[in-house]
Design a protein that fits this description.
The protein is mainly α. Helix content is 51%, strand content 7%. Strands 1-3-4 form a 3-stranded antiparallel beta sheet. Strands 2-5 form a two-stranded antiparallel ribbon. It is globular and about 45 Å long. The protein starts with a helix and ends with a helix.
Length: 206
């Protein structure tokens, strides 16, 4: 959501808690972020990232700790642009997020340059955590640093076909996140494909 991005940029103090903190909160706090509105909130976040890309920028550090929610928990914005870079300036062997669990394997394992699909990967893994409110789905950084493409692909598959199904999400939701977390960038969703699939799922629930 463009509005959300701009509100963060000009520094209005409207967003007081991160998604990561919500996931670690008690049941009462989690209950405030109702399941029925999480996909819609996530769609707004994805649209904000798409807007950032339209300006020629990559965020490169999308993760739950960098997603802030407003008090009503109906708007999410992306914070911490310290690693952001112009798409045209991305290079091979460049920045690798210290939070490897959200980092595009093409970048973290193969030193490829970041692209918009790198942000899609981090956004998708963040989205799985957002709509399940479960921050134990993915292994921690120390474990991820020891994993190869096959191990990461298996973990992402389990997250989609396990955690998302167990949380009661539709095959459509499972499919869109599975494609967006593909370790192979050639088959990974583009941002427009992710948003299109999300819009279809959100509109189907109205």
């Amino acid at each position: 959501m463009v509005t959300g991005v701009l509100k963060y940029v000009i520094g209005l103090p409207l967003y007081e808690i991160s998604l990561w903190d919500v996931m670690g909160s008690n049941r009462l706090k989690k209950a405030q972020f109702q399941k029925k509105k999480r996909l819609s909130v996530y769609l707004g976040l994805a649209e904000g990232v798409e807007y950032l890309h339209s300006l020629g920028w990559l965020h490169r550090d999308i993760k739950s700790a960098n997603v802030l929610l407003n008090t009503a928990m109906n708007i999410a914005v992306l914070a911490d642009v310290g690693a952001a870079i112009l798409t045209s300036e991305a290079t091979e062997g460049g920045f690798v997020s210290t939070t490897r669990m959200y980092c595009d394997p093409a970048v973290s394992l193969h030193s490829a340059k970041s692209t918009t699909k790198s942000d899609v990967y981090g956004l998708a893994k963040t989205g799985i955590e957002m709509i399940t409110l479960d921050r134990s789905i993915f292994k921690n950084n120390a474990a991820v640093q020891k994993m190869d493409d096959a191990a990461l692909a298996d973990e992402n598959k389990q997250a989609c076909h396990g955690a998302l199904k167990d949380a009661g999400y539709s095959p459509g939701v499972v499919s869109l996140f599975f494609k967006a977390t593909a370790c192979n960038r050639e088959i990974r969703s583009t941002m427009s494909e992710l948003i299109g699939a999300l819009s279809t799922e959100v509109n189907a629930k109205k």
